[in-house]
Write a structure and sequence with these properties.
Blueprint lengths: L14 H15 L3 H14 L4 H13 L3 H14 L4 H13 L3 H14 L4 H13 L3 H14 L4 H13 L3 H14 L10 H4 L2
Helix pairs in contact: 1-2, 2-3, 3-4, 3-5, 4-5, 5-6, 6-7, 7-8, 8-9, 9-10
């Protein structure tokens, strides 16, 4: 699957930079992430104060597992436009992969404050909270994600795993069945091990 262009992306006003920017997005969709990064870099030479280009290149760097470089780009994006919530969330994801859970939580808190209707942010923060040992906070975020997007099978599956970890196998099984009803990918003739911990 290719890299989906950012919902926040603002095409540069400079025509040549805009050309590189659109090409970078096209290459990302086609799974040419290295090519995408190169085009974003060219766009930044021409438009070095564009928050969206840094955010988009940071996302591409994250996909390539170049987490510290991604963080550097998200930092730059935020320094230019403090309202770019995707830069906060992207930086939070990268920090999580670098085991900076507190930093990740802080960035996801800010992203949610800026865009409280993005259900994916709550699922991500739920994961980080669970890693920090805050199962109550993790469950609260998982519930919020589902309330915002009640037809997302992944959210039910994710909450199912969380509920199983807290010992609530009945609710975990209920959520797994809901996920299965929404997406056949989650269907199985056997109850997965994580439900009963064996």
């Amino acid at each position: 699957m290719g890299l989906i262009p950012s919902k926040f992306a603002r095409c540069p006003k400079n025509k040549q930079a805009a050309k590189y920017f659109r090409e970078a997005q096209k290459l990302g969709r086609e799974c040419d992430i290295d090519g995408s990064i190169a085009c974003y870099s060219q766009a930044l030479v021409l438009d070095p104060l564009n928050s969206s280009i840094y955010e988009a290149r940071g996302t591409s760097l994250f996909v390539k597992r170049r987490y510290q470089q991604a963080i550097n780009d998200f930092d730059k994006s935020i320094s230019i436009d403090k309202s770019n919530y995707l830069s906060y969330s992207g930086r939070g994801y990268a920090k999580d992969f670098l085991n900076d859970r507190r930093g990740a939580l802080q960035d996801l808190d800010t992203a949610i404050r800026l865009c409280p209707q993005d259900s994916n942010l709550y699922t991500s923060r739920s994961d980080v909270r669970l890693k920090l040992g805050d199962s109550a906070g993790a469950l609260k975020d998982a519930n919020k994600a589902i309330s915002l997007n009640p037809n997302n099978a992944w959210f039910y599956y994710s909450r199912s795993r969380l509920l199983a970890q807290t010992g609530d196998s009945t609710s975990a099984l209920r959520d797994l069945r809901k996920a299965s009803s929404l997406n056949s990918r989650f269907k199985s003739n056997r109850v997965p091990r994580y439900i009963y911990g064996n």
